[in-house]
Structures are given as C-alpha cells and as structure tokens.
Design brief:
CATH class of the largest domain: Alpha Beta
Radius of gyration: 39 Å
Shape: elongated
Helix content: 25-40%
Number of domains: 2
Strand content: 25-35%
CATH topology of the largest domain: Chemotaxis protein chec
Low-confidence stretches: 1-9
Mean pLDDT: 81
Largest sheet: 7 strands, antiparallel
Structural class: alpha+beta
C-alpha cells in the first residue's frame, strides 16, 4: 500500500462545483431582490446598543470611587486610591468562568430597579483586610481555604454595608436607590443572582494598597434591570439637583452681613396746623405726644418699638417689641 503524498491537491467533484455555482446564483438573487434588506431577529435576544456608552454609569462609578475610600480607612489606616474600569456586558455564566469557586458574593435587593445587585470581593483581599483590621500588616496571606472565618465574615459585612451606603450616595443624583436585605455567599455554585445565560453589566474597580499589589472588586447589575433607565444612563445631565456649596454659602452670608444700612429712631410724628408752622422760630416749643412708642427704622422701615433712655452718658433707645411687617 503506497504512502500518500503530502503535496497532492484536492479537486472539486461535479456535485461540489454545482453546489458552488448554485450558491453564487442565490447571492445574486438576494442582492437584487429589492432596495430593502431584511435582517433576521431572534426573539429574546438582548440589544446591547440600548445602553449607549454607559456615560451615566461611568459617572456613577467615578463618584463611587471617591465615596468608597473612607470604607477602607478603618482597615488600611489610610484612604486608598480606587479606580474604575469601563463597564462591560457579558453573560453571567461567562463572568462566573473568570472567577474562582471560592469568593465573597453579597447580593442586595434594589426595589427601585426591581432586581438584585451583587458585590464580589476576592478572598485574598478579605484576608488582607481582616489581618490589617486586627493589627497585622497590610499583606496578602496564603489562602488555601474554602470558607471564611467568623472574623472575615464580620469584615465582609462591615465592608459591604459601607459600599452599599457609598452606592446609594453615588446613585442619588440619577435616581434614589436603596440596597437592602444583603445575603452573603462564599460558594459560586450556590449564588442565586440571575440565570446563567442572562446578560449582566460588570463594573470592576481596582484598589491601590500600600506595600502590596492592587486588589480588585466587582459590582454586578443585571442588564434587564438597567434597561428601563437606559435613557438616563445615556444622558450627560445627571441631576436637576444642585448640591449645597458650603463655602459659597459662607461667602454669600459674609457679603450680605457686610452691607451698610441706615438705622434711625423715630420718637414721634406730631400733627401741627399750618398756622403754627408760620409762627415757628428758634426757641419756640412744639408739644409732642409720645403715647405711641418710639420706633427703630432700618432703611425707612419700622422694625422695633422702643423706649427712650440713656447709656454711657449718651441717648439710647431700648428695643421692646419686634413689629410684624
């Protein structure tokens, strides 16, 4: 039996040539069938373009980076620098394939979105925070375990609770969200978040650590939960509310308090006939009735009733009642 040569060429059979020619004819028919091109649509498929460039979500993540820094202060004894990666859309099954089976997963209910939200913390980062929280060095520890200790579980609760409060503040300008009823799981197989084939929006963050490699954490949102607010997430305007600028308010208050005002005291408003005014001259006494109390006027507006008196050898007016204007 002869050995086949490696440089032998494969020739098309008559049936293969006929199928190739028929395919070319079908392509010509499809191109010349009409001006309208028909696009196949699969029901139930996710239209990812509806979210646009995630501009609103990017801004929320940037605010979250600033607001989440104090959460790690009790553990790291410093405010770490936190940076956000651009959001990514992938199936939940695909996201789970990128993780180890043993991770910290905390699911919280978000009623405003009628869905859940997930926070993922790597186990080595949890061990580092726990060790630093109880006086140890900020360094990664060997981790070959399959479950968290009671101390690590407590640290996870403290961290995730702080991250939820930071998320509420970060989302506040776009829409008020409340993250409630957190449920913790440390085995990826038992995490009940969404179906494996459903799309999720993954927001990854990197936490800079002193004398150690950076740590990562993820915030996961179901894509279906964000679609109803896609228009807001695409908008460049995040809020109609303007946060109070305390420094501007203080400067405005100081400027208003420095405005000079004319203050006068009105002792009486006597009524004098014209005939008496004609005969007035220096030294003449005009009777005045002080039964209506003297008043203090600011820019011509009466603000207080008072009583005449003296203080330090000078005439003074004692304020007795504030007038309702």
């Amino acid at each position: 039996m002869g050995k086949p040569t490696t440089n032998s060429t494969h020739k098309l059979s008559s049936n293969e040539v006929a199928a190739l020619v028929d395919g070319l004819f079908d392509m010509d028919k499809e191109q010349g069938s009409g001006p309208e091109n028909v696009k196949r649509y699969k029901f139930g498929s996710d239209n990812l373009s509806i979210m646009g460039d995630y501009h609103g979500l990017r801004m929320i993540n940037e605010r979250f980076c600033r607001l989440a820094r104090p959460v790690f202060l009790p553990f790291l004894r410093m405010h770490p620098r936190i940076s956000a990666f651009p959001p990514e859309v992938k199936s939940f099954d695909h996201y789970c394939d990128e993780l180890e089976n043993f991770v910290s997963l905390t699911t919280a209910r978000v009623e405003a979105l009628r869905s859940n939200q997930l926070i993922m913390l790597p186990p080595n980062f949890v061990s580092l925070l726990t060790n630093a929280y109880y006086g140890g060095n900020i360094a990664y520890l060997p981790n070959g375990r399959t479950e968290f200790t009671a101390a690590e579980t407590r640290v996870i609760t403290i961290v995730t609770d702080g991250l939820h409060r930071a998320l509420e503040a970060a989302w506040r300008d776009l829409m008020p969200l409340a993250f409630a009823n957190p449920v913790h799981e440390d085995n990826l197989q038992f995490a009940t978040f969404v179906e494996s084939e459903e799309k999720v929006v993954c927001c990854s963050f990197i936490v800079q650590l002193p004398d150690a490699d950076p740590a990562t954490m993820d915030l996961i949102y179901p894509l279906q939960a964000l679609k109803p607010i896609a228009a807001r997430l695409r908008s460049r305007m995040q809020s109609d509310q303007v946060d109070d600028d305390l420094r501007w308010r203080a400067r405005l208050r100081d400027a208003v308090m420095a405005v000079p005002l004319n203050v006068t005291a009105r002792l009486a408003q006597p009524t004098v006939p014209l005939t008496h005014l004609v005969g007035l001259n220096p030294g003449r006494v005009v009777p005045v009735d002080l039964s209506p109390r003297p008043q203090l006027l600011v820019e011509g507006t009466a603000l207080f009733d008072g009583e005449p008196g003296a203080q330090g050898g000078r005439a003074a007016l004692s304020l007795t009642r504030k007038l309702d204007n």
